[in-house]
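Hey, resending since the last one bounced:
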Amino acid sequence: MAKRKTRAAKGGNFWQRMDVRSRMFFVLALCSAALLITVIGAFVAVHTAGGEGEETSGDSSVVSGSDYDQSANSIDASQYDGTVLAETEDAGEDYIDSTLFLGDSNTARMYRMFDYCSYDNAIGSVGMSARQLESYACVQFAGYSNYVTMPEAVALMQPERVIITFGTNDAGTDVDTFIENYEAGIQAVEEAYPSVDIIVNSVPPIGRSHINSSLDQEQLDEYNRAIVEMCEANGWKFLNSAEALKGSDGYAQSDYVDSDGIHLTRSGMDVLFEYIRTHSYITEDDRPTLTSIPKHTDDKDVSAQTASSVVTSSSSAPASSSSQATPTPEPASSSQASSSSQTYTYWEEVIAPTCTEKGYTVHHCNEDSSRDYIDSEVAALGHAEGTADSSGNIYCTRCGTLIRTVTPPSSATSETASAG
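The structure tokens again:
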């Protein structure tokens, strides 16, 4: 009992033992701490609310476009005669079936969500940009252990023509860089299968209200104008389907895009495919004798989480902007880059080199997949030759591929060599 009284007495004398100056500093410290806690709490509350708004429905996530000069980058077909595809008779479904469609999420919707194409004539990777066309391995075939790139897939599928649509996920990239990347990717397609006819589709318009602050219709118009010039310089054809999807204000007609203002609805797809059939490009089929075509079984998305929203249902909820190559929630590593008031975070996916394919590192942006980039490329390892087995076969010690067969010398040759 005595001890408890002594402690209570000491505690009660805490304030009394301090002089006036100590009391003043003590009160000042308490006030400062309270102010700091209040500021931190307000900061966290505001930024958390803002972050949630970007991934869910709500006014805070919607960007409303302003009026812009539609004529600034308008495309005069007569100026690009022979490059811009003119109106034709309806080429029908046979034309669609003999065309291979390559692109991003809007292409993926053609066959994964709607029924305009199938895995036999479409390859779409959600979140993919033009700069990834040449190098991103995203196509899976039955019997192949690794994914292949779109150019490699074209060589395997051997189509009469391809219609290529990229650009939405390149928003924010300057026009010259965008075209440089796009041109390299399309040239890779052409080199992989020289017999294929190349048709480059316009970047589809976005709605006046949309969820991606990086997208700007004026820049998309600039992209399309530059794409026409690229096509003319390379002898490719340009499909100006954007003109059929736009409303009077220069943005996508409201019922042609989903509530996110970016992805085409079934109504938009109807218009797009009618335009494709009535602006056809059919040439003499000069393909070499077709070889066995492997079964296209799967596509790897750049943005797997986004894919779950934009290609599996027509939900009105805006798609998530998170970018991941797999649904794994925890990234391997992260770094940060800041642009104005927006902070972008990245995680790295290291693709190891194999005997036949180069390795590289993909930097995935969690907030905006158009900012993904590839670096740290490593050359393919090449086969490691082992020793010949009893049958004279020499296999790669890394991947097990048969490299060559050594024919053992005949007995007559051996006897002659011994006699000499």
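The radius of gyration is 30 Å.

Sorry for the duplicate.
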